């Protein structure tokens, strides 16, 4: 461990020393000294172009960066991640976002079990649900097609969906509007809810742990909004089977009605006491 820290420290110091020699270099000088700099420092993937030639960097820069990566053990940790090892030490579990992007279906084993069949099954259910919403087949609880989607999430549960939505905007269904709520300040969700109709709004709760304050607060606010503004509140779990969905809707509706009665009684008592 001590040797590894020393190696990382040496690699970092070498990079810092290189920075001191490079900080006065001008971009024009780099291109003048390397006529084929763009060809050497760019890469293409389909229609995507990565051009890193317009950075104050040389072959020596990338060599030193590579040495720092090796000294920090980044490649070894990446191998452990792809192997399904439990590198998330705080939650003591594997980091499996790589499985979601594993379109080659190469087996990813966790505790000796390939997780890819389950991942593909869930992705298939998500795709089917999305297609039903976009086509208008999956409707709100009063039988009207969905017109608005409200994403409730914070941090990565907000930034990720926002980025994807912006990137894929040219391919979106224009009459389906997407809204994002990522702040525990009630003003944020209140302003969004002013623009939507409960009968045609789908709430998405995005959370990795389902314990964040913003997620809990926004979900409760959204549920109360639907209950107050819908003639027949019927919460649902869109990825559940038909029977499961129907039972869950009935159970949640009953609980919501009972909870609403209790809140009204409590409010009346509070007013009477005053």
Tell me what the structure shows.
By secondary structure, this protein is mainly alpha-helical. It folds into 2 domains: 2-109, no CATH class; 129-257, Glucose-6-phosphate isomerase like protein, domain 1 (Rossmann fold, 3-Layer(aba) Sandwich). Helix content is 54%, strand content 10%. The protein has a 3-stranded parallel β-sheet, with helices on both faces. It is extended. The N and C termini lie far apart (66 Å). Mean pLDDT is 82; it is low at 245-274.
List the helices and strands and how they pair.
Layout: H1 2-22, H2 27-33, H3 37-40, E1 42-45, E2 48-51, H4 59-72, H5 74-82, H6 97-100, E3 109-110, E4 113-114, H7 116-135, E5 148-152, H8 156-167, E6 177-181, H9 186-193, E7 201-205, H10 213-229, H11 242-273
Helix pairs in contact: 1-4
Q: Note poorly predicted spans.
A: 245-274
Give the total of domains. Answer: 2
> What is the spatial order of strands in the main beta sheet?
6-5-7
Terminal CA distance reads: 66 Å
Q: What is the ordering of alpha helices and beta strands? A: HHHEEHHHEEHEHEHEHH
* Category by helix and strand content: mainly alpha
Global shape: extended
Give the second-level CATH assignment, the architecture of the largest domain.
Answer: 3-Layer(aba) Sandwich
Please estimate the helix content: 40-55%
Percent of residues in β-strands: 5-15%
- CATH class type of the largest domain: Alpha Beta
Mean pLDDT: 82
Largest sheet: 3 strands, parallel
Look up the CATH topology of the largest domain: Rossmann fold
Rounded radius of gyration (Å): 26 Å
Total DSSP E strands? 7
Number of helices: 11
Q: CATH superfamily assignment of the largest domain? A: Glucose-6-phosphate isomerase like protein, domain 1
């Amino acid at each position: 461990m001590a040797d590894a820290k020393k190696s990382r420290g040496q690699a970092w110091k070498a990079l810092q020393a290189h920075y001191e020699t490079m900080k006065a270099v001008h971009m024009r000088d780099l291109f003048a000294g390397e006529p084929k700099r763009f060809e050497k420092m760019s890469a293409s993937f389909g229609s995507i172009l990565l051009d890193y030639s317009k950075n104050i960097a040389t072959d020596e820069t990338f060599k030193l960066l590579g040495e720092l990566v090796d000294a920090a053990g980044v490649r070894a940790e990446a191998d452990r991640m792809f192997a399904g090892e439990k590198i998330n030490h705080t939650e003591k579990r594997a980091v499996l976002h790589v499985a979601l992007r594993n379109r080659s279906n190469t087996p990813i084993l966790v505790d000796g079990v390939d997780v890819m069949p389950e991942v593909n099954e869930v992705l298939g259910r998500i795709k089917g649900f999305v297609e039903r919403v976009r086509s208008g087949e999956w409707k709100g609880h009063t039988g009207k097609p969905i017109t608005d989607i409200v994403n409730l999430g914070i941090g990565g549960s907000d930034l990720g969906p926002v980025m994807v939505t912006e990137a894929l905007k040219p391919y979106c269904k224009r009459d389906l509007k997407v809204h994002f709520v990522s702040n525990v300040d009630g003003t944020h969700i209140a302003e969004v809810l002013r623009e939507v109709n409960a009968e045609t709004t789908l709430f998405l709760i995005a959370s990795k742990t389902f314990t964040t304050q913003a997620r809990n607060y926004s979900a409760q606010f959204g549920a109360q909004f639907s209950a107050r503004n819908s003639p027949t509140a019927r919460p649902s779990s869109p990825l559940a089977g038909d029977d499961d969905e129907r039972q869950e809707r009935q159970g949640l509706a009953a609980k919501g009605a009972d909870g609403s009665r209790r809140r009204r009684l409590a409010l009346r008592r509070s007013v009477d006491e005053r």
